[in-house]
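Reproducibility note. Readers wishing to regenerate the assembly model reported in the main text can use the exact inputs given here. Chain order matters: entities are listed in the order in which they were concatenated for prediction.
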Amino acid sequence: MVDLSVKRGKLLLKNPIMTASGTFGYADEFNDFMDVSKLGAVVTKAISLEPRSGNSWNRVIEVTSGMINSIGLENVGIEKFLSDKLPVLREKNIDFVMNLAGSGMEEYVELAKICEENKIGAVELNVSCPNVKSGCLEFGTDAKVLGELVKSVREVYNGCLIVKLTPNVTRIEDIGLAAQESGADAVSAINTLKGLGMKLSFRNGKFLREQVIGGFSGMAVKPVALGVVNRLKQVLEIPVIGLGGIASMQDVLEFLAVGAEAVQIGTANFTTPDISERIIGELTLFMEENGFATLDDLKERLRGE
Amino acid sequence: MTIEKNKKMNKGEVTLIERVANEMFLIKIKVAADFEPRAGQFVSILCDNHTMRRPFSIMNFLDGEISILFKKKGDGTAYIANLNVGDTVDFIGPMGNGFQCVSEKTLCVGAGVGVAPVYYLKKVLGENARLIAGFQNSNEIPACLQDEIDFISTDDGSFGAHGSIIDYLDAQINEYKPERICVCGPHIVLKLVAEKAKAHGIPCEVAMEKTMACSIGVCRGCVVTLNRSGKIDNASVCKDGPVFLGEEIVW
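Running the prediction on these inputs yields the following C-alpha coordinates for the assembly.
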Protein backbone atom coordinates (compact mmCIF):
# COMPACT_ATOMS: atom_id res chain seq x y z
CA MET A 1 0.00 0.00 0.00
CA VAL A 2 1.44 3.36 -0.99
CA ASP A 3 1.47 6.28 1.41
CA LEU A 4 -0.29 9.27 -0.13
CA SER A 5 -0.29 11.40 2.99
CA VAL A 6 0.74 15.03 3.14
CA LYS A 7 2.45 16.25 6.32
CA ARG A 8 3.67 19.82 6.11
CA GLY A 9 3.42 21.65 9.42
CA LYS A 10 -0.25 21.89 10.28
CA LEU A 11 -1.31 20.80 6.80
CA LEU A 12 -2.14 17.15 7.39
CA LEU A 13 -3.99 15.21 4.72
CA LYS A 14 -4.42 11.51 4.06
CA ASN A 15 -3.88 12.23 0.37
CA PRO A 16 -3.25 15.36 -1.71
CA ILE A 17 -6.59 15.42 -3.52
CA MET A 18 -8.97 18.06 -2.17
CA THR A 19 -12.07 19.56 -3.74
CA ALA A 20 -12.32 23.32 -4.18
CA SER A 21 -14.70 25.65 -2.41
CA GLY A 22 -17.93 26.36 -4.27
CA THR A 23 -17.69 23.27 -6.43
CA PHE A 24 -18.55 20.60 -3.88
CA GLY A 25 -21.30 22.11 -1.73
CA TYR A 26 -21.08 20.81 1.81
CA ALA A 27 -20.02 17.37 0.50
CA ASP A 28 -23.16 15.33 1.18
CA GLU A 29 -24.52 16.26 -2.26
CA PHE A 30 -21.82 14.05 -3.79
CA ASN A 31 -22.71 10.88 -1.91
CA ASP A 32 -24.79 9.78 -4.88
CA PHE A 33 -21.66 9.75 -7.02
CA MET A 34 -18.70 8.70 -4.92
CA ASP A 35 -17.28 7.93 -1.50
CA VAL A 36 -16.53 11.44 -0.27
CA SER A 37 -14.64 10.20 2.79
CA LYS A 38 -11.80 9.08 0.51
CA LEU A 39 -10.86 12.68 -0.28
CA GLY A 40 -7.83 14.35 1.26
CA ALA A 41 -10.26 17.10 2.21
CA VAL A 42 -13.40 18.79 1.01
CA VAL A 43 -13.24 22.57 1.12
CA THR A 44 -16.76 23.74 1.93
CA LYS A 45 -18.66 26.36 0.06
CA ALA A 46 -17.73 29.78 1.46
CA ILE A 47 -19.42 30.46 4.78
CA SER A 48 -20.27 33.85 6.23
CA LEU A 49 -21.76 34.85 9.58
CA GLU A 50 -25.23 35.47 8.18
CA PRO A 51 -26.81 33.54 5.30
CA ARG A 52 -26.21 35.23 1.94
CA SER A 53 -28.60 35.01 -0.97
CA GLY A 54 -26.00 35.74 -3.62
CA ASN A 55 -26.33 37.58 -6.89
CA SER A 56 -29.38 37.79 -9.13
CA TRP A 57 -30.39 35.22 -11.76
CA ASN A 58 -28.18 34.22 -14.71
CA ARG A 59 -25.14 33.23 -12.77
CA VAL A 60 -23.28 30.78 -15.01
CA ILE A 61 -22.25 30.58 -18.64
CA GLU A 62 -19.99 28.19 -20.49
CA VAL A 63 -16.95 29.46 -22.36
CA THR A 64 -14.27 27.60 -24.31
CA SER A 65 -12.76 24.99 -21.97
CA GLY A 66 -14.27 26.58 -18.91
CA MET A 67 -17.04 28.68 -17.46
CA ILE A 68 -17.84 32.00 -15.84
CA ASN A 69 -19.73 32.17 -12.56
CA SER A 70 -21.27 35.02 -10.68
CA ILE A 71 -22.80 33.29 -7.68
CA GLY A 72 -21.92 35.94 -5.09
CA LEU A 73 -21.08 33.67 -2.16
CA GLU A 74 -24.60 32.41 -1.59
CA ASN A 75 -24.46 30.26 1.52
CA VAL A 76 -26.44 29.02 4.49
CA GLY A 77 -24.55 31.02 7.11
CA ILE A 78 -22.37 29.61 9.90
CA GLU A 79 -25.18 28.88 12.34
CA LYS A 80 -26.95 26.56 9.92
CA PHE A 81 -23.65 25.07 8.83
CA LEU A 82 -22.87 24.10 12.41
CA SER A 83 -26.33 22.69 13.11
CA ASP A 84 -27.07 20.95 9.78
CA LYS A 85 -23.91 20.34 7.78
CA LEU A 86 -21.14 19.82 10.33
CA PRO A 87 -22.77 16.76 12.01
CA VAL A 88 -23.07 15.06 8.59
CA LEU A 89 -19.41 15.71 7.76
CA ARG A 90 -18.30 14.34 11.13
CA GLU A 91 -20.64 11.36 11.10
CA LYS A 92 -19.40 10.31 7.66
CA ASN A 93 -15.75 10.84 8.56
CA ILE A 94 -15.25 13.40 5.84
CA ASP A 95 -12.10 15.48 6.24
CA PHE A 96 -12.92 19.07 5.50
CA VAL A 97 -11.65 22.63 5.45
CA MET A 98 -14.06 25.44 6.16
CA ASN A 99 -13.88 28.24 3.63
CA LEU A 100 -14.62 31.56 5.35
CA ALA A 101 -15.83 34.72 3.63
CA GLY A 102 -16.22 37.96 5.53
CA SER A 103 -17.25 41.39 4.40
CA GLY A 104 -14.85 43.01 6.86
CA MET A 105 -12.03 42.21 9.24
CA GLU A 106 -14.39 41.72 12.20
CA GLU A 107 -16.48 39.15 10.36
CA TYR A 108 -13.44 37.03 9.48
CA VAL A 109 -12.22 37.14 13.07
CA GLU A 110 -15.66 36.27 14.42
CA LEU A 111 -15.93 33.33 12.00
CA ALA A 112 -12.47 32.10 12.98
CA LYS A 113 -13.39 32.29 16.68
CA ILE A 114 -16.46 30.17 16.07
CA CYS A 115 -14.31 27.64 14.18
CA GLU A 116 -11.87 27.49 17.09
CA GLU A 117 -14.72 26.96 19.58
CA ASN A 118 -16.14 24.17 17.42
CA LYS A 119 -12.76 22.47 16.96
CA ILE A 120 -12.72 22.91 13.20
CA GLY A 121 -9.30 21.57 12.18
CA ALA A 122 -8.66 23.74 9.14
CA VAL A 123 -9.99 26.91 7.57
CA GLU A 124 -9.37 28.58 4.24
CA LEU A 125 -9.74 32.35 4.16
CA ASN A 126 -11.55 33.44 1.03
CA VAL A 127 -9.89 36.77 0.30
CA SER A 128 -10.32 36.42 -3.39
CA CYS A 129 -13.93 36.14 -4.51
CA PRO A 130 -14.35 38.45 -7.52
CA ASN A 131 -18.15 38.46 -7.32
CA VAL A 132 -19.04 40.43 -4.21
CA LYS A 133 -18.95 44.18 -3.80
CA SER A 134 -17.35 44.57 -0.40
CA GLY A 135 -14.70 42.61 1.46
CA CYS A 136 -13.14 39.49 0.06
CA LEU A 137 -11.20 40.48 -3.03
CA GLU A 138 -9.93 43.76 -1.58
CA PHE A 139 -8.24 41.81 1.22
CA GLY A 140 -6.56 39.61 -1.33
CA THR A 141 -5.11 42.35 -3.50
CA ASP A 142 -3.29 44.45 -0.87
CA ALA A 143 -0.38 42.80 0.92
CA LYS A 144 -0.55 45.11 3.93
CA VAL A 145 -4.29 44.70 4.46
CA LEU A 146 -4.05 40.94 3.99
CA GLY A 147 -1.22 40.73 6.49
CA GLU A 148 -3.33 42.49 9.11
CA LEU A 149 -6.27 40.20 8.42
CA VAL A 150 -4.24 37.01 8.68
CA LYS A 151 -2.58 38.26 11.87
CA SER A 152 -5.96 39.00 13.47
CA VAL A 153 -7.35 35.60 12.51
CA ARG A 154 -4.18 33.86 13.69
CA GLU A 155 -4.64 35.37 17.15
CA VAL A 156 -7.97 33.61 17.63
CA TYR A 157 -7.52 30.43 15.60
CA ASN A 158 -5.00 27.66 16.24
CA GLY A 159 -5.89 25.13 13.54
CA CYS A 160 -4.49 24.95 10.05
CA LEU A 161 -4.90 28.41 8.51
CA ILE A 162 -4.94 28.46 4.70
CA VAL A 163 -5.21 31.69 2.70
CA LYS A 164 -6.73 31.40 -0.78
CA LEU A 165 -5.09 33.82 -3.18
CA THR A 166 -6.46 35.61 -6.19
CA PRO A 167 -4.47 35.72 -9.43
CA ASN A 168 -5.95 39.15 -10.14
CA VAL A 169 -2.97 41.05 -8.72
CA THR A 170 0.27 42.51 -10.04
CA ARG A 171 2.75 40.69 -7.78
CA ILE A 172 1.30 37.60 -6.15
CA GLU A 173 4.64 36.91 -4.41
CA ASP A 174 4.04 39.94 -2.16
CA ILE A 175 0.60 38.70 -1.18
CA GLY A 176 1.88 35.21 -0.46
CA LEU A 177 4.75 36.54 1.63
CA ALA A 178 2.36 38.75 3.62
CA ALA A 179 0.24 35.67 4.42
CA GLN A 180 3.32 33.70 5.44
CA GLU A 181 4.78 36.43 7.62
CA SER A 182 1.45 36.91 9.37
CA GLY A 183 1.23 33.30 10.44
CA ALA A 184 -0.61 31.42 7.69
CA ASP A 185 0.10 27.69 7.56
CA ALA A 186 -0.45 27.41 3.80
CA VAL A 187 -1.73 29.29 0.78
CA SER A 188 -3.98 27.95 -1.95
CA ALA A 189 -3.89 29.36 -5.46
CA ILE A 190 -5.62 30.27 -7.65
CA ASN A 191 -9.13 31.53 -7.17
CA THR A 192 -10.96 32.44 -10.38
CA LEU A 193 -9.79 34.99 -12.92
CA LYS A 194 -11.99 37.96 -13.70
CA GLY A 195 -13.79 37.36 -16.96
CA LEU A 196 -16.81 37.87 -19.15
CA GLY A 197 -18.66 35.13 -20.98
CA MET A 198 -21.06 35.86 -23.80
CA LYS A 199 -23.38 34.03 -26.13
CA LEU A 200 -24.65 36.09 -29.04
CA SER A 201 -27.30 35.00 -31.46
CA PHE A 202 -28.94 36.86 -34.31
CA ARG A 203 -32.62 36.10 -34.88
CA ASN A 204 -35.29 37.97 -36.78
CA GLY A 205 -33.00 40.97 -37.22
CA LYS A 206 -32.18 41.22 -33.52
CA PHE A 207 -29.13 40.34 -31.45
CA LEU A 208 -29.84 38.28 -28.38
CA ARG A 209 -27.07 38.53 -25.82
CA GLU A 210 -26.59 36.19 -22.90
CA GLN A 211 -23.78 37.42 -20.69
CA VAL A 212 -22.23 36.70 -17.31
CA ILE A 213 -19.42 38.75 -15.77
CA GLY A 214 -17.61 36.96 -12.99
CA GLY A 215 -15.00 34.36 -12.13
CA PHE A 216 -13.40 32.37 -14.95
CA SER A 217 -12.51 28.77 -14.13
CA GLY A 218 -12.02 25.41 -15.78
CA MET A 219 -9.38 23.71 -17.88
CA ALA A 220 -8.49 26.90 -19.73
CA VAL A 221 -7.01 28.54 -16.62
CA LYS A 222 -4.53 25.76 -15.78
CA PRO A 223 -1.46 27.45 -17.33
CA VAL A 224 -2.18 30.59 -15.29
CA ALA A 225 -2.52 28.51 -12.12
CA LEU A 226 0.67 26.56 -12.77
CA GLY A 227 2.49 29.82 -13.40
CA VAL A 228 1.25 31.29 -10.12
CA VAL A 229 2.14 28.21 -8.08
CA ASN A 230 5.58 28.20 -9.65
CA ARG A 231 6.12 31.87 -8.73
CA LEU A 232 4.88 31.38 -5.17
CA LYS A 233 7.21 28.43 -4.65
CA GLN A 234 10.20 30.62 -5.48
CA VAL A 235 9.57 32.79 -2.42
CA LEU A 236 7.45 30.85 0.10
CA GLU A 237 8.42 28.32 2.72
CA ILE A 238 4.88 27.42 3.76
CA PRO A 239 3.11 24.84 1.58
CA VAL A 240 1.24 25.88 -1.54
CA ILE A 241 -1.99 24.10 -2.46
CA GLY A 242 -2.46 24.27 -6.23
CA LEU A 243 -5.74 24.62 -8.04
CA GLY A 244 -7.05 25.88 -11.34
CA GLY A 245 -8.25 23.70 -14.20
CA ILE A 246 -7.28 20.32 -12.78
CA ALA A 247 -9.23 17.55 -14.52
CA SER A 248 -6.88 14.56 -14.64
CA MET A 249 -4.07 12.78 -12.81
CA GLN A 250 -1.66 14.26 -15.35
CA ASP A 251 -2.76 17.74 -14.26
CA VAL A 252 -2.16 16.80 -10.61
CA LEU A 253 1.38 15.65 -11.43
CA GLU A 254 2.07 18.97 -13.17
CA PHE A 255 1.06 20.93 -10.07
CA LEU A 256 3.15 18.69 -7.82
CA ALA A 257 6.06 19.19 -10.22
CA VAL A 258 6.02 22.97 -9.78
CA GLY A 259 5.96 22.57 -6.03
CA ALA A 260 2.36 22.20 -4.88
CA GLU A 261 2.07 20.00 -1.78
CA ALA A 262 -1.60 19.23 -2.42
CA VAL A 263 -4.19 20.16 -5.03
CA GLN A 264 -7.85 21.08 -5.24
CA ILE A 265 -10.20 19.97 -7.97
CA GLY A 266 -12.84 22.54 -8.84
CA THR A 267 -14.85 23.01 -11.99
CA ALA A 268 -14.11 19.44 -13.13
CA ASN A 269 -16.45 18.26 -10.33
CA PHE A 270 -19.31 19.71 -12.39
CA THR A 271 -18.27 17.94 -15.58
CA THR A 272 -17.50 14.60 -13.91
CA PRO A 273 -18.89 14.40 -10.36
CA ASP A 274 -16.70 11.45 -9.34
CA ILE A 275 -13.49 12.86 -10.92
CA SER A 276 -11.76 13.39 -7.57
CA GLU A 277 -12.24 9.78 -6.51
CA ARG A 278 -11.11 8.58 -9.94
CA ILE A 279 -7.94 10.68 -9.70
CA ILE A 280 -7.12 9.28 -6.24
CA GLY A 281 -7.50 5.80 -7.73
CA GLU A 282 -5.33 6.60 -10.74
CA LEU A 283 -2.64 8.26 -8.63
CA THR A 284 -2.53 5.28 -6.27
CA LEU A 285 -2.23 2.88 -9.18
CA PHE A 286 0.44 5.00 -10.87
CA MET A 287 2.54 5.03 -7.71
CA GLU A 288 2.12 1.29 -7.12
CA GLU A 289 3.04 0.41 -10.67
CA ASN A 290 6.06 2.66 -10.73
CA GLY A 291 7.49 1.90 -7.33
CA PHE A 292 6.76 5.10 -5.43
CA ALA A 293 6.22 4.17 -1.79
CA THR A 294 5.29 7.63 -0.59
CA LEU A 295 3.95 10.85 -2.05
CA ASP A 296 7.16 12.54 -0.97
CA ASP A 297 9.13 10.11 -3.16
CA LEU A 298 6.91 11.02 -6.09
CA LYS A 299 7.29 14.76 -5.45
CA GLU A 300 11.05 14.44 -5.16
CA ARG A 301 11.31 12.68 -8.51
CA LEU A 302 8.89 15.09 -10.19
CA ARG A 303 10.92 18.07 -9.03
CA GLY A 304 14.25 16.48 -9.91
CA GLU A 305 15.42 16.94 -6.34
CA MET B 1 -10.69 0.82 -8.57
CA THR B 2 -14.26 -0.08 -7.82
CA ILE B 3 -16.70 2.66 -7.02
CA GLU B 4 -19.25 1.39 -4.57
CA LYS B 5 -21.83 4.12 -4.25
CA ASN B 6 -22.15 5.28 -7.78
CA LYS B 7 -25.87 5.45 -8.21
CA LYS B 8 -26.13 8.33 -10.60
CA MET B 9 -23.14 8.16 -12.94
CA ASN B 10 -24.55 6.46 -15.99
CA LYS B 11 -23.65 5.37 -19.45
CA GLY B 12 -26.07 4.32 -22.13
CA GLU B 13 -26.16 3.39 -25.76
CA VAL B 14 -27.99 5.39 -28.40
CA THR B 15 -30.69 3.19 -29.93
CA LEU B 16 -32.44 5.85 -31.98
CA ILE B 17 -31.85 9.41 -33.05
CA GLU B 18 -34.13 11.26 -35.42
CA ARG B 19 -35.27 14.73 -36.34
CA VAL B 20 -38.92 15.05 -35.31
CA ALA B 21 -39.53 18.73 -36.07
CA ASN B 22 -37.64 21.80 -37.23
CA GLU B 23 -34.33 21.65 -35.28
CA MET B 24 -36.00 19.29 -32.77
CA PHE B 25 -34.67 15.79 -32.18
CA LEU B 26 -35.71 12.61 -30.39
CA ILE B 27 -32.96 10.46 -28.92
CA LYS B 28 -33.42 7.10 -27.19
CA ILE B 29 -30.76 5.79 -24.85
CA LYS B 30 -30.60 2.23 -23.49
CA VAL B 31 -29.66 2.32 -19.82
CA ALA B 32 -28.81 0.03 -16.91
CA ALA B 33 -31.58 -1.95 -15.28
CA ASP B 34 -31.79 -0.03 -12.00
CA PHE B 35 -32.65 3.32 -13.60
CA GLU B 36 -35.96 4.51 -12.12
CA PRO B 37 -37.01 7.98 -13.19
CA ARG B 38 -40.22 9.85 -12.45
CA ALA B 39 -41.93 12.36 -14.70
CA GLY B 40 -40.35 15.80 -14.38
CA GLN B 41 -36.88 14.51 -13.55
CA PHE B 42 -33.97 15.10 -15.90
CA VAL B 43 -30.63 13.73 -17.02
CA SER B 44 -27.50 15.76 -17.70
CA ILE B 45 -25.48 14.69 -20.70
CA LEU B 46 -21.74 15.14 -21.12
CA CYS B 47 -21.17 16.77 -24.50
CA ASP B 48 -17.75 15.85 -25.78
CA ASN B 49 -15.20 18.22 -24.21
CA HIS B 50 -17.69 20.77 -22.91
CA THR B 51 -17.30 21.87 -19.30
CA MET B 52 -21.01 22.03 -18.52
CA ARG B 53 -23.28 19.05 -19.00
CA ARG B 54 -26.57 19.76 -20.78
CA PRO B 55 -29.73 18.97 -18.80
CA PHE B 56 -32.80 17.45 -20.50
CA SER B 57 -36.18 16.41 -19.16
CA ILE B 58 -36.98 12.76 -19.54
CA MET B 59 -39.79 12.37 -22.10
CA ASN B 60 -40.40 8.70 -21.53
CA PHE B 61 -38.86 5.63 -19.98
CA LEU B 62 -39.92 2.35 -21.49
CA ASP B 63 -38.23 -1.05 -21.86
CA GLY B 64 -35.01 0.27 -20.37
CA GLU B 65 -34.82 3.15 -22.80
CA ILE B 66 -34.88 6.85 -21.95
CA SER B 67 -36.46 9.12 -24.54
CA ILE B 68 -35.33 12.73 -24.69
CA LEU B 69 -36.74 15.48 -26.86
CA PHE B 70 -34.34 18.36 -27.47
CA LYS B 71 -33.92 21.39 -29.62
CA LYS B 72 -30.63 22.01 -31.40
CA LYS B 73 -29.62 25.45 -30.21
CA GLY B 74 -25.88 25.60 -29.50
CA ASP B 75 -22.78 23.47 -29.86
CA GLY B 76 -23.70 21.17 -26.94
CA THR B 77 -27.01 20.15 -28.45
CA ALA B 78 -25.39 20.02 -31.91
CA TYR B 79 -23.01 17.41 -30.52
CA ILE B 80 -25.91 15.29 -29.30
CA ALA B 81 -27.81 15.73 -32.56
CA ASN B 82 -24.78 14.34 -34.39
CA LEU B 83 -24.58 11.16 -32.31
CA ASN B 84 -25.26 7.88 -34.10
CA VAL B 85 -27.03 4.69 -33.11
CA GLY B 86 -24.57 2.60 -31.12
CA ASP B 87 -22.67 5.60 -29.68
CA THR B 88 -22.20 5.80 -25.91
CA VAL B 89 -23.77 8.63 -23.93
CA ASP B 90 -22.29 9.65 -20.57
CA PHE B 91 -25.00 11.11 -18.36
CA ILE B 92 -25.93 11.67 -14.74
CA GLY B 93 -29.41 11.12 -13.43
CA PRO B 94 -32.22 10.84 -12.83
CA MET B 95 -31.80 14.27 -11.23
CA GLY B 96 -34.22 16.63 -9.53
CA ASN B 97 -37.54 16.09 -7.81
CA GLY B 98 -40.09 15.47 -10.57
CA PHE B 99 -43.81 16.19 -10.50
CA GLN B 100 -45.47 15.47 -7.18
CA CYS B 101 -48.98 14.70 -8.35
CA VAL B 102 -49.95 11.06 -8.34
CA SER B 103 -53.69 10.69 -8.48
CA GLU B 104 -55.42 13.99 -9.13
CA LYS B 105 -57.16 14.70 -12.40
CA THR B 106 -54.44 16.68 -14.14
CA LEU B 107 -54.24 19.11 -17.03
CA CYS B 108 -50.77 18.79 -18.54
CA VAL B 109 -49.67 21.91 -20.43
CA GLY B 110 -46.62 22.05 -22.68
CA ALA B 111 -45.13 24.79 -24.81
CA GLY B 112 -42.56 24.01 -27.50
CA VAL B 113 -39.95 21.45 -26.46
CA GLY B 114 -41.37 21.80 -22.94
CA VAL B 115 -44.04 19.33 -23.97
CA ALA B 116 -41.61 16.49 -23.17
CA PRO B 117 -41.93 16.14 -19.37
CA VAL B 118 -45.68 16.76 -19.31
CA TYR B 119 -46.11 14.12 -22.01
CA TYR B 120 -44.29 11.72 -19.69
CA LEU B 121 -46.54 12.78 -16.82
CA LYS B 122 -49.61 12.12 -18.92
CA LYS B 123 -48.28 8.66 -19.79
CA VAL B 124 -47.85 7.93 -16.09
CA LEU B 125 -51.27 9.28 -15.11
CA GLY B 126 -53.05 7.55 -18.01
CA GLU B 127 -56.78 8.22 -18.25
CA ASN B 128 -56.57 10.72 -15.43
CA ALA B 129 -54.82 13.40 -17.45
CA ARG B 130 -55.24 15.59 -20.47
CA LEU B 131 -52.31 16.94 -22.50
CA ILE B 132 -52.50 20.26 -24.31
CA ALA B 133 -49.62 22.01 -26.02
CA GLY B 134 -48.73 25.16 -27.95
CA PHE B 135 -46.13 25.57 -30.68
CA GLN B 136 -44.92 28.43 -32.90
CA ASN B 137 -46.11 26.75 -36.08
CA SER B 138 -46.79 23.33 -37.61
CA ASN B 139 -43.08 22.77 -38.33
CA GLU B 140 -42.33 22.93 -34.60
CA ILE B 141 -44.68 20.11 -33.60
CA PRO B 142 -42.71 16.91 -32.87
CA ALA B 143 -44.04 14.27 -35.24
CA CYS B 144 -43.63 11.55 -32.62
CA LEU B 145 -46.08 13.29 -30.27
CA GLN B 146 -48.63 14.88 -32.58
CA ASP B 147 -51.21 12.11 -32.14
CA GLU B 148 -50.65 11.93 -28.39
CA ILE B 149 -51.57 15.55 -27.68
CA ASP B 150 -55.25 16.12 -26.94
CA PHE B 151 -55.31 19.77 -27.98
CA ILE B 152 -52.77 21.75 -30.02
CA SER B 153 -52.52 25.44 -30.78
CA THR B 154 -50.01 27.23 -33.01
CA ASP B 155 -49.11 30.91 -32.85
CA ASP B 156 -49.66 31.32 -36.61
CA GLY B 157 -52.64 28.98 -36.89
CA SER B 158 -50.78 26.61 -39.26
CA PHE B 159 -52.00 23.62 -37.20
CA GLY B 160 -54.78 23.22 -34.65
CA ALA B 161 -56.21 26.22 -32.89
CA HIS B 162 -54.86 29.66 -33.78
CA GLY B 163 -52.96 31.47 -31.02
CA SER B 164 -51.01 30.88 -27.84
CA ILE B 165 -51.95 27.95 -25.61
CA ILE B 166 -52.58 30.57 -22.92
CA ASP B 167 -55.48 31.91 -25.00
CA TYR B 168 -57.26 28.56 -24.65
CA LEU B 169 -56.42 27.81 -21.05
CA ASP B 170 -59.62 29.17 -19.47
CA ALA B 171 -61.77 27.18 -21.85
CA GLN B 172 -59.72 24.02 -21.28
CA ILE B 173 -59.94 24.41 -17.51
CA ASN B 174 -63.68 25.04 -17.60
CA GLU B 175 -64.29 22.06 -19.86
CA TYR B 176 -61.89 19.51 -18.31
CA LYS B 177 -62.21 20.67 -14.68
CA PRO B 178 -58.75 19.53 -13.53
CA GLU B 179 -57.78 19.19 -9.87
CA ARG B 180 -54.19 20.09 -10.75
CA ILE B 181 -52.26 21.75 -13.57
CA CYS B 182 -48.71 20.79 -14.52
CA VAL B 183 -46.80 22.87 -17.04
CA CYS B 184 -43.43 23.07 -18.78
CA GLY B 185 -42.27 25.64 -21.30
CA PRO B 186 -40.61 29.05 -21.57
CA HIS B 187 -40.49 31.20 -18.44
CA ILE B 188 -43.30 33.51 -19.57
CA VAL B 189 -45.61 30.56 -20.29
CA LEU B 190 -44.97 29.13 -16.83
CA LYS B 191 -45.77 32.46 -15.25
CA LEU B 192 -48.98 32.96 -17.19
CA VAL B 193 -50.22 29.40 -16.60
CA ALA B 194 -49.45 29.70 -12.90
CA GLU B 195 -51.46 32.95 -12.77
CA LYS B 196 -54.42 31.38 -14.58
CA ALA B 197 -54.32 28.35 -12.28
CA LYS B 198 -54.31 30.60 -9.25
CA ALA B 199 -57.29 32.55 -10.61
CA HIS B 200 -59.17 29.26 -10.94
CA GLY B 201 -58.04 28.12 -7.50
CA ILE B 202 -56.24 25.08 -8.87
CA PRO B 203 -52.81 23.95 -7.60
CA CYS B 204 -50.15 24.31 -10.30
CA GLU B 205 -46.77 22.65 -10.68
CA VAL B 206 -44.26 24.28 -13.01
CA ALA B 207 -41.17 22.55 -14.43
CA MET B 208 -38.47 25.19 -14.85
CA GLU B 209 -35.47 25.44 -17.11
CA LYS B 210 -32.22 27.25 -16.30
CA THR B 211 -28.62 27.09 -17.46
CA MET B 212 -26.92 24.66 -15.09
CA ALA B 213 -23.28 24.12 -14.27
CA CYS B 214 -23.35 21.17 -11.88
CA SER B 215 -26.91 19.70 -12.09
CA ILE B 216 -26.62 18.44 -8.52
CA GLY B 217 -27.24 21.46 -6.32
CA VAL B 218 -23.77 22.55 -5.31
CA CYS B 219 -22.81 25.44 -7.57
CA ARG B 220 -25.92 27.57 -6.95
CA GLY B 221 -25.81 28.62 -10.58
CA CYS B 222 -29.44 27.89 -11.42
CA VAL B 223 -31.37 29.39 -8.55
CA VAL B 224 -34.89 30.78 -8.50
CA THR B 225 -36.41 32.81 -5.69
CA LEU B 226 -39.23 31.20 -3.72
CA ASN B 227 -41.69 32.68 -1.28
CA ARG B 228 -42.73 29.90 1.07
CA SER B 229 -45.27 31.24 3.55
CA GLY B 230 -43.65 34.67 3.56
CA LYS B 231 -40.11 33.32 3.81
CA ILE B 232 -38.07 34.44 0.80
CA ASP B 233 -35.31 32.02 -0.14
CA ASN B 234 -33.35 30.72 -3.09
CA ALA B 235 -33.86 27.25 -4.43
CA SER B 236 -31.78 25.50 -7.05
CA VAL B 237 -33.69 24.39 -10.12
CA CYS B 238 -31.52 21.28 -10.45
CA LYS B 239 -31.85 19.87 -6.93
CA ASP B 240 -34.83 21.51 -5.22
CA GLY B 241 -36.68 21.55 -8.58
CA PRO B 242 -36.97 21.52 -11.49
CA VAL B 243 -40.64 21.29 -10.46
CA PHE B 244 -42.00 23.94 -8.08
CA LEU B 245 -45.44 25.04 -7.00
CA GLY B 246 -46.38 28.00 -9.19
CA GLU B 247 -47.64 30.01 -6.24
CA GLU B 248 -44.24 29.78 -4.50
CA ILE B 249 -42.16 31.29 -7.27
CA VAL B 250 -41.23 34.95 -7.11
CA TRP B 251 -41.66 35.67 -10.81
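We highlight two features of this model. Chain A has one domain: 6-57+71-193+216-302. The mean pLDDT of chain A is 95.
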